[in-house]
Amino acid sequence: MAHAPHVQVRRAYDPPQTDDGQRVLVDRLWPRGLSKARAHLNEWCKEIAPSTGLREWYGHDPGRYDEFARRYRAELDDPEHAAAFAHLRDLATHSQLTLLTAAKRSDISEATVLAGLLTTSTSR
Fold it and tell me: What is the pTM of this model?
């Protein structure tokens, strides 16, 4: 039986760690004030980010997180999101994966939703 991938979430502004593995930014917008050199990214997967409408509705309101996560998981079924999710799943099966977000609270971000999905399912 294959082991579950190890996926972690960090803020894009945090310095890279030795256990980061592949560092992938999953926000649609580039983090304000962060240079590309300082980000130390392997890639920017903006196609996986929530829609602008969902992101604006959510506004990182902790009281809306559960509903945000439900709506975001539903968005992941559309073809563009599904292809991006499959790419992240492939990365996670081959190496350590760190999902980066600029959100002040990464624990209630799309990166956390993605990390949960990537570590609990081997296929969507």
Answer: 0.91
